[in-house]
Structures are given as structure tokens and as C-alpha cells.
Design goal:
The chain is an all-alpha fold. It has helices at 8-29, 35-43, 48-63, 68-85, 95-125, 132-141, 145-187, 193-234, 249-253, 257-275, 282-287, 289-298. Helix 3 (48-63) runs antiparallel to helix 4 (68-85). The longest helix has 43 residues, at 145-187. The relative contact order is 0.09.
């Protein structure tokens, strides 16, 4: 193939060599870049990998056909990163603050320079991974390494400067807004010393009244609780007793609750007294034959109904009186009620084995 029409492979090799030399030249030219750009790169928190991809994307966007959109996205991302990390420029007369700012700016410049140099060194070692069509286009263009190095640096410098300018505009806008707010506050009418004292007195008076009202409310609540407690103690059945009316004749003849309770207690006492004396003893049977005969007519002594059992039928006297006991039912030797000689747990003497 003639020299006027070189092969694509030869153009690709030429483009690869030219791009490697351009990246090496750019690495050496980093120290001559604008210190503001270097400081912005150092503050942007972008590493060498990010800058390497940005340099490759810019070259691909210039000599490739399908890489322009990707290069624009990376440039916009880099500009936004620089804008977010760019501080507002503040002037100060404090010498210590000035020295601190100068020292921090030097650190940012040094860090940005080192990061860019590392990025171009990595880009140089990875030139062969770029699209062959891009390298072939560089070979056909016959661009020199100096021009390509300057082009790469310019493409990398553009988004950084765009971020710096956007940050400066943003800080200026914020400063104008703060100034307008301060002017509005200064234009507001100010209170005189007497008005401020009157406001303080009124505030203290309101606090005093609030504390007093709270104390009075607490005292009133305590007094009300004490009154309710005393009322409940004096009237346990309820706070509001029904109104007293004149009793009728039927109500007067009806038994009162207190008397009714006494009558029921007397009836129960009489019943229990009779149940304790329903079982006659052999001695009492021998001494009172008429009582035994009467028991034979009505049933055995164990099952005979007591004289006071009529209290269950409602015919017991209202005062709870009990009929007199028979001789068999009288107490023996002043020891209380007569004790049966046999019970369900002990058999009589005649039936023992």
C-alpha cells in the first residue's frame, strides 16, 4: 500500500503513539496550569480515576462519532462537583485567618496537581484500551503531541472553570439575598427604651398572673376533693339522698328495715336453737315418758320437727321468742345444752361389738 493511502492498522498505531506522547506531555504541563483550577480540583474530591475517565471521554468525543453525549455527561458531573465544593471567597483582616486560608489554598493546589499528574499517567498506560476508531482518527489527522496535549488540558480545564463560575454566581446571589434581608430588618421600626421596659413589665405581670391562677386553681381543686371525700364518708350510700316525704299508713304499718333485720336474726336463732335439741338422750327419755310418747306419735326424735321450725312458715313471733323447752331439753349441770350420748360417729352402748 502506498504512502498516500496508508492502511488502517498503520494509522491506528500512529494514533496510539501520538496519544501516549500527548498524555505524557500533559502530565508535565500540569504544573503550569492555573492555580485556581488546580485548587478547585484538589477540593472537588475527585480521584485520579475520575479525571482519567474525563480525559478519555473528551478525546473520544472529539475524534469518535458516538461518544459526544457521554463526554457531556462527565463534564456536567465534574462541573457540579466543583461547584458544590467551592467555598465562598471571604475577605478578612485577621492575619491568622489570612495565614490559615493561604495555607489551605496551598494544600489544595498541591493535591490537585498530584491528582492530575496521576490521572494523566494512568491515561497514558491505558491508551491501547481506547476505541481503535478514535486512535485511527487521531492518526489520520496528523495532529502533533503538543497540540493534542494542549487540547486535552483545555478540555479538562473547561468543566472545572464552569463549576468555579457557577459557585461564584451562587455565592453572589446568596450574598444579595442576605443583604436584602438585613436591609429589611434595619428598616423595621425599632422600639424605644421605654417601650422595651414596658414590654418586659407586661411580660413579668402576665407570668405572675399565670402562676397565681395556677396556684388558686390547685387550691380550689384540693378543697373540692376534700369536700367530696367528707361527703362520701358521711353519706356512703350516695351523695344525693332522696327527698323525705310524709309516710302513709301502709308504710307506717310495714316493718322497717332495721326491725326486719332484727326479726330475721331472731328467727334464725330460734331455728338453730330448736335444731340443736331435736335428738333426745336416753336419760331424758326415761325421765319424761310423755315426751317419748309424743315423739312416737310424730316420729322418731331424730326426725321430729322442732317447735321453733314454724319460724320458716312465717308464724314465729315478731320478737323472736322461743317456746319453753321440756325437761329433756333443759341444760344439764349448768354446762350448756345437753349433749347426746350417741351420734352418727358413735354407736350406742347396746349396739357395740
Amino acid at each position: 500500500m502506498s504512502l498516500s493511502n496508508p492502511s488502517p492498522r498503520r494509522m491506528t498505531r500512529r494514533g496510539t503513539r501520538t496519544l501516549k506522547a500527548a498524555y505524557a506531555q500533559a502530565q508535565r504541563d500540569v504544573k503550569r496550569m492555573d492555580p485556581a483550577v488546580l485548587a478547585a480540583v484538589g477540593r472537588s474530591k475527585m480521584n485520579s480515576q475520575d479525571l482519567k475517565h474525563l480525559a478519555h471521554a473528551n478525546i473520544n468525543g472529539l475524534y469518535g462519532s458516538n461518544h459526544e453525549r457521554f463526554a457531556q455527561q462527565l463534564n456536567a458531573h465534574a462541573a457540579a462537583q466543583v461547584q458544590a465544593t467551592s467555598p465562598a471567597s471571604q475577605r478578612t483582616r485577621n492575619p491568622f485567618k489570612q495565614l490559615s486560608n493561604w495555607n489551605q489554598n496551598r494544600k489544595d493546589i498541591r493535591h490537585g496537581k498530584q491528582t492530575l499528574q496521576m490521572a494523566y499517567a494512568q491515561a497514558k498506560s491505558e491508551v491501547k484500551r481506547i476505541d481503535p476508531a478514535v486512535r485511527q482518527g487521531i492518526g489520520h489527522s496528523r495532529v502533533s503531541k503538543r497540540d493534542l496535549a494542549d487540547l486535552s488540558i483545555a478540555q479538562l480545564d473547561a468543566p472545572v472553570r464552569a463549576g468555579i463560575n457557577r459557585a461564584a454566581q451562587h455565592h453572589q446571589t446568596q450574598a444579595r439575598i442576605a443583604a436584602s434581608i438585613a436591609a429589611t430588618a434595619a428598616a423595621a421600626p425599632r422600639q424605644s427604651a421605654g417601650q422595651r421596659v414596658a414590654n418586659a413589665v407586661n411580660t413579668a405581670s402576665r407570668w405572675k398572673n399565670a402562676v397565681r391562677d395556677g396556684a388558686n386553681g390547685a387550691i380550689a381543686k384540693a378543697e373540692k376533693f376534700r369536700a367530696d371525700y367528707n361527703e362520701r364518708r358521711q353519706n356512703p350510700t350516695g351523695r344525693s339522698a332522696p327527698a323525705q316525704t310524709a309516710p302513709t299508713a301502709a308504710a307506717q304499718n310495714a316493718p322497717q328495715p332495721a326491725n326486719l333485720a332484727a326479726d330475721k336474726a331472731a328467727q334464725a336463732k330460734a331455728v338453730h336453737a330448736g335444731l340443736n335439741n331435736t335428738m333426745p338422750t336416753p336419760e331424758a327419755t326415761a325421765q319424761a315418758p310423755e315426751a317419748t310418747a309424743q315423739a312416737a306419735e310424730t316420729g322418731t326424735g331424730r326426725h321430729r320437727a322442732p317447735e321453733a321450725a314454724a319460724a320458716f312458715d312465717g308464724i314465729a313471733p315478731a320478737n323472736g321468742a322461743v317456746a319453753p323447752k321440756t325437761a329433756a331439753q333443759q341444760a344439764t349441770a349448768g354446762q350448756g345444752e345437753a349433749v347426746p350420748a350417741h351420734n352418727k360417729h358413735r354407736k350406742p352402748e347396746g349396739q357395740e361389738r
